# Entry
Amino acid sequence: MAEYIDRDKAIETIQETVEPYVIVDPETTCIVGAGVKEADVIKVLNGLTAADVQEVRYGEWLEDEHKAEYCSKCGKHPYNDGEYYIAGWWSEFCPHCGVKMKG
Ligand SMILES: [Zn+2]
# Structure
């Protein structure tokens, strides 16, 4: 399962904890590059706590042979017992499985 981290917190932590290095040309002794070690960045990223988020799943309202709308993901109609609407086809989310309907 995917995990999500706070980008700003990751950048801030990398800037505060990862020591940069410079690349020096041995012949001219000039600095020709700089950077950070990949392993140091990975260590920082692995140390961050994953954010408590849930991935958004998408679906769409489709019509069956009776022209009744149903969810493309769970296959259920947007009403309960065929009588009481708990959400119509205009709903932004499926009331059964929670997918977000494509605009
Ligand atoms: Zn659904």
